[in-house]
């Protein structure tokens, strides 16, 4: 009997996630125990933030002379021009890393960061690109990377979900529960949403309490449910969806005591809250999410995901990008510093990035009606930047690079599949061995692709 089949047959009544946690094991020594994924939805502009291109700056406003891909179509790109960086680049950290002056707090912790300047993906459209980043596939419904991690390693805390997505974005381009869903994995590996997008202050787990019954009443109800389901499983066979539902009831019962404490940010000192920008208008919402993420991983949550929207700057790049930078700069720097100060950064892998980057030419959606100062950039999956911190990654380095204009990744190229393979490797999992049999074949997060980026490993 395979491990997965044993899990499916044995889960009824006591929760598949708990059993899997007891059986979890790594393929090789792990450097990281947990992941915090900071998803910047929309596609941050790499040449305005981290990937300085002096040639692009010199050619600003000149007619764009590079060849576009065959059949490349997008509104507002006819007669387009080179578009240089909108902000000044400065050198930060001991190695003089070049980065935008719009992220001063992140610059203060840049010696703990590993930039991946040669990222590339497969789709120029938001929805498929976002699916590929989260699940490894741009079209089919597949398990999200958090689900794969939980499936491979189990949870460290049986009183909290092993995979939590904080204030997930729903609706719009790519905003779907698929981004934290378990796909064809058992439903108990799906992410648990915490709160709603844009309202971190009131983020709570839903349906935890029982306003009528006592804890004793709840325990008797759950025991009765478990007995009924064991009887039903013995008669007709176990049902994964039902097992997952029962497991969620059991988890919710246990969470009633621990979850409110973990989410109570008032337990943090005023100094810590200020470190994340809590209480400041521009940074309060994202700062709360980052501090929640730290408290959750500290409590044993395996995978925490945060989504920040508003990075899709087709227009008004000069006005909109500084606003987004202001919102996330202090909270992210605070998160890195706080994890490091508590000794958590060494075995916590932090991932920052969007589904793709932006073009080195401008985009005019007004078709000439608005001034050039209000233009933006089109999508670009051919070359962009993400960064990692902690969890066994070399700090204070930049790996890979794009051409002179930030258009194509040309060296140290890292595909989304490679990013996933590297993440799993740092967690002690071989991306080629972490598989799940479904419809007659073995599936994995990296599909049939992916290489570990060994150059960035400590």
Helix % is 25-40%
Regions with pLDDT < 50 over 5+ consecutive residues?
6-23
* Count of folded domains: 1
The coarse silhouette is globular
Number of strands: 17
CATH architecture: 3-Layer(aba) Sandwich
Round the Cα radius of gyration to an integer and report it. Answer: 23 Å
Structure description:
By secondary structure, the chain is an alpha/beta fold. It has 13 helices and 17 strands. The protein has one domain: 3-Layer(aba) Sandwich (Alkaline Phosphatase, subunit A), CATH 3.40.720. 33% of the residues lie in helices and 17% in strands. The strands form five sheets. Strands 1, 4, 5, 6, 7, 8, 11, 12 and 15 form a nine-stranded mixed beta sheet that branches. The chain has a two-stranded antiparallel sheet with strand order 2-3. A hairpin with a 2-residue loop joins strand 16 and strand 17. Helix 2 packs across helix 7. About 4% of the residues have low confidence.
List the topology elements:
Blueprint: H1 3-10, H2 16-23, E1 34-40, H3 46-49, H4 54-58, E2 89-92, E3 97-100, H5 104-107, E4 113-120, H6 126-135, H7 145-153, E5 163-166, E6 192-194, H8 215-236, H9 240-262, H10 270-275, H11 284-298, E7 303-308, H12 317-341, E8 348-353, E9 357-363, E10 376-380, E11 384-389, E12 397-399, E13 401-402, E14 409-411, E15 414-415, H13 416-426, E16 436-438, E17 441-443
Parallel strand pairs: 1-7, 1-8, 4-12, 4-15, 5-6, 5-7
Antiparallel strand pairs: 2-3, 4-11, 8-11, 9-10, 13-14, 16-17
């Amino acid at each position: 009997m395979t491990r997965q089949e044993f899990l499916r047959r044995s889960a009824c009544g006591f929760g598949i996630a708990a059993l899997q946690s007891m059986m979890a094991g790594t393929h090789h020594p792990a450097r990281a125990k947990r992941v915090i994924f900071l998803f910047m939805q929309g596609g941050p502009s790499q040449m305005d933030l981290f990937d300085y291109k002096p040639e692009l700056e010199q050619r600003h406003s000149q007619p764009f002379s590079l060849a576009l891909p065959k059949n490349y179509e997008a509104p507002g790109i006819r007669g387009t021009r080179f578009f240089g960086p909108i902000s000044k680049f400065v050198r930060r950290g001991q190695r003089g890393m070049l980065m935008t002056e719009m992220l001063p707090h992140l610059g203060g912790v840049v010696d703990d960061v590993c930039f991946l300047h040669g990222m590339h993906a497969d789709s120029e459209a938001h929805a498929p690109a976002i699916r590929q980043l989260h699940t490894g596939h741009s079209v089919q419904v597949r398990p999200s990377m958090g689900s794969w991690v939980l499936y491979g390693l189990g949870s460290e805390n049986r009183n909290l979900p092993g995979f939590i997505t904080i204030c997930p974005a729903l609706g719009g381009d790519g905003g779907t529960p698929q981004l934290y869903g378990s796909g064809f994995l058992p439903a108990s590996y799906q992410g648990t949403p915490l709160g709603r997008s844009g309202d971190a202050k009131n983020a709570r787990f839903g349906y935890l309490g029982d306003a009528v019954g006592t804890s004793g009443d709840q325990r008797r109800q759950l025991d009765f449910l478990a007995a009924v389901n064991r009887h039903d499983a013995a008669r007709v066979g176990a049902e994964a969806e039902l097992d997952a539902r029962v497991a969620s009831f059991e988890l919710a019962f246990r969470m009633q005591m621990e979850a409110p404490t973990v989410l109570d940010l008032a337990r943090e000192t005023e100094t810590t809250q200020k470190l994340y920008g809590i209480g400041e208008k521009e940074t309060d919402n994202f700062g709360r999410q980052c501090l929640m993420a730290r408290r959750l991983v500290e409590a044993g949550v395996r995978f925490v995901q945060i989504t920040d929207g508003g990075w899709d700057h087709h227009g008004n790049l000069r006005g909109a990008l500084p606003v987004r930078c202001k919102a996330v700069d202090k909270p992210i720097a605070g998160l890195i510093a706080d994890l490091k100060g508590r000794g958590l950064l060494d075995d916590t892998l932090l991932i920052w990035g969007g589904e793709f980057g932006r073009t080195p030419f401008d985009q005019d959606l007004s078709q000439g009606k608005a001034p050039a100062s209000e233009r933006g950039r089109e999508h670009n999956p051919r070359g962009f930047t993400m960064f990692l911190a902690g969890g066994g990654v070399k700090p204070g380095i930049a790996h890979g690079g794009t051409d002179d204009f930030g258009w194509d990744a040309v060296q140290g190229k890292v595909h989304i599949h490679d990013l996933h393979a590297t993440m799993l490797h740092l967690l002690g999992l071989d991306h080629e061995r972490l598989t799940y049999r479904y419809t007659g074949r073995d599936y994995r997060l990296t599909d049939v692709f992916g290489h570990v980026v060994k150059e960035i490993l400590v």
